[in-house]
Here is the input.
Amino acid sequence: MKITKILITALFLSLVFTSLAHAQTTMYVASWLPPSHPQNTVVLPTWGKWIEEATNGEVKLKIEYNIGHPKDLFTLVEDGVVDAAWSSTGYVPGRFELTQLAELPLNGPNAEAASVAYWRVHEKYLAPANEFVGVEVVGLFTHAPGQIHTRDPINSLKDLSGQKIRLGGGVMNSLAEKMDVVGVNAPATKVYEMLQQGVIDGTFLPVCEQRTIRLNEVARNLTLLPGGMYQTSFAVFINEGFLENLPDQTREALLSVSGERLSRLAGQEWEQCGNEALQESIDKGVAVKRVEKGDPIAVEFEQISSGIDEDWLNSLEDTGVNASEALKEFRSIARNYEAQKKE
Here is the structure.
């Protein structure tokens, strides 16, 4: 009888420990753009589905909003306030310099190609510089090429001189300085209100934001440069302690559905959003100026962009990173990339 009780107890404890070992963990991911943005309706939920499948249901993803300003999310994740997040590296000037590689003007690729190239080049060249110290970066991507959204039409980039333009940091700020605009730094979530109230005259953002933050209501003029002006660098990152606390197999499974796969998805979705938003804006009467290569405005932009590559490369001489080779490889991968079907 006593032996039977011992066996039953041992079996019970075994089941308890097995249950604990496979206990479900929720990974809370902070997001800052509206819930209707493709990053929140498609990218993060799809990543969550991949994670749940890869970990056999041990890890689930839940999106959290209003956790903090996007510039603070790196610190909030590092401190464990939230398990993971995504944000623009341009919102944290001084910390991220190498990531501007993906933002440089005249890179040329769409968001999918740029995002895949960005991840590969980061892993090969940029990661050793450890700019993401304190968090585990699990995805890198860019939005579709940034364009010019204004309240009033422009016929030349000189028309922007002295105008108040919302900026988001990074290479965008360098371009704005060369264009002699009055830069107003603010997150994208504030742009609609600022335009509506006349605080700014325009903004540099991808076409997708004509839809997601309703720029088609307040920026009724859209100027499309060939290849765009720039592409903003974004990162998806996880608290290191959160990952370390996962069983080894679970952690590896989570990471296996991140990296290049996640980066590609984010780029694909932002590109598709831009294509759809452009047609919606046209249907709603937004005046769209399509600038062709060789047009006066395109030539103006090429002249304005001259020297930005060199300025960036010169600023990195003490990093120990072969930034010149990294940029060359980034552009080669991106410009020769063949689009893949969305998963």
In short: Residues 1-21 have pLDDT under 50 and may be disordered. The first helix runs from residue 2 to 21. The chain has 14 helices and eleven strands.
